[in-house]
Structures are given as C-alpha cells and as structure tokens.
Amino acid sequence: AQSVTQPDIHITVSEGASLELRCNYSYGATPYLFWYVQSPGQGLQLLLKYFSGDTLVQGIKGFEAEFKRSKSSFNLRKPSVHWSDAAEYFCAVVIFSGGYNKLIFGAGTRLAVHP
Amino acid sequence: ETGVTQSPTHLIKTRGQQVTLRCSSQSGHNTVSWYQQALGQGPQFIFQYYREEENGRGNFPPRFSGLQFPNYSSELNVNALELDDSALYLCASSLGVLEVGIREQYFGPGTRLTVT
C-alpha cells in the first residue's frame, strides 16, 4: 500500500543551524512528491514539489529537497533556519486512483527553533 | 494567493449530533477535496467533489457526506458525531480533477471540530 513516513515527530534546532527533515515513501510507480508547511491557525502551504527531472528541487523560503529513488526518500533541507520556520512540516505523495487524485500525507514533523 | 475560506473556525458539538462545515473555493476552481487531520496526524483524504458530484472517497463511513454547489463552494456534513471525529477539517480546491496534485491545491485554514 502507498504510504509516507516521517520518522521524526519533533525536531529542535538553533536559529542559523542547518535543517534536514526526513521523508520516506512507499509507492509502486514514479512518485509525485510534495512538502507542505502548516503554521498554527493556517492552512497547508506548498513548499516544493517533485514530479520528474532534476532530483534536487528548490522551493520557497529557501527550502530544497532531494529525491533519492534508491532510498525511497525525499528529504527537506534548509542551510540556515530562521525562527519563523518553526511550524509543522508534512511530506505527501499523490495517488492516482482512476478518475481522481488524492494526497497521502505523512504524520508530520514539528520543528522548534531556539534563538 | 490562496482564496480558500472555511467556516466556522471552531466548533464544539456533542456526541450524536450533526455538523455542517463550509468551504469556499479559490475563484475558478471546480474541484474540492476534504481532509481530516486528527491531532498529531497528517491530513487524511475524506472525499472529493467535481462539478457537484462526488468522484472519489477515502476510507470514511457514509455518515460523512458532502455537497458541492454550482458556484463550487462545498459542505462537509457529519452525522451521529463520535468522539474520534474531533479533528481539524481542511478543504482544498484545485482547477480540475486531474490537476489535483499536479498543479497546486490551495488549502483553507481549516475548521477545528471538538466533539464532547
């Protein structure tokens, strides 16, 4: 069955430090992968997406992610974290289901940023 | 800029009651998907509406139902509320059925439902 796993429930980093959030997926075909961010009281905002081509994708707010087929991973990275990056981050994959598409999300990683 | 709005923001209901949640789509978007996000979990797909018809459903019982109106706004109805229905309910609009996930889905801020 298709699934997305985010192994880290909580991560705390210091402001200015680098960040890597892990995402592993299980999907039979070439996956369409996404990273979303959710701040309190806000909806989900798309950070970046991977469909095909270059396996390193750039997103908004200085985020990037690398698709590694051999590891079934799509990890999110940022070289220098800002306090405003504190939020919950969700990795997702699109499932194509005969006439409609839907997103399957991981359980999320909550990021805390220390000053 | 996302124009998806949801109402109400928060809602408290008693077990066994019924609830209606509302979603106003981004202008021009004819597809609406609803998701349930329980505390500490990622969003789970409930169902999707395209041009006023349900065209896809996740693993949710029939007491979860929906409507989409000619202006593409949408409702999620839940009957016989259970404690486990307590969650954040998100709607997302997109330009077309096959655009979901291909082009960006725009999510609303959600409705927080508490069932006591």
Task: Explain what the structure shows.
The complex is a heterodimer of chains A (115) and B (116). With 115 residues, chain A is mostly beta strands. In chain A, the strands form three sheets. In chain A, strands 2, 5, 6, 10, 11 and 12 form a six-stranded mixed sheet that branches. A four-stranded antiparallel sheet of chain A has the order 3-9-8-7, with no helix packed on it. Chain A starts with a strand and ends with a strand. In chain B, a hairpin with a 5-residue loop joins strand 7 and strand 8. Chain B is globular, with a radius of gyration of 13 Å. At the A-B interface, strand 6, strand 10 and strand 11 of A face strand 5 and strand 10 of B.
Key descriptive features of the protein:
heterodimer, A: 115 residues, mainly beta, four-stranded antiparallel beta sheet, 12 strands, B: 116 residues, 49% strand
Short structural description:
The complex is a heterodimer of chains A (115) and B (116). Chain A is mainly β and 115 residues long. Chain A is globular.
- Helices and strands of chain A: which structural class? mainly beta
**Secondary structure tally, helices of chain B:** 0
Number of beta strands of chain B:
11
Care to count the β-strands of chain A? 12
Termini separation of chain A: 41 Å
Approximate strand percentage of chain B? over 45%
Overall pLDDT level of chain A: 93
The major pleated sheet of chain B works out as: 7 strands, mixed
Rounded Rg of chain B = 13 Å
Summed up, the helix count of chain A is: 0
Please compute the radius of gyration of chain A using only Cα atoms. 14 Å
Quaternary structure type: heterodimer
H and E string of chain A: EEEEEEEEEEEE
Strand coverage percent of chain A: over 45%
Helix percentage range of chain B: under 10%
What's the helix-strand series of chain B? EEEEEEEEEEE
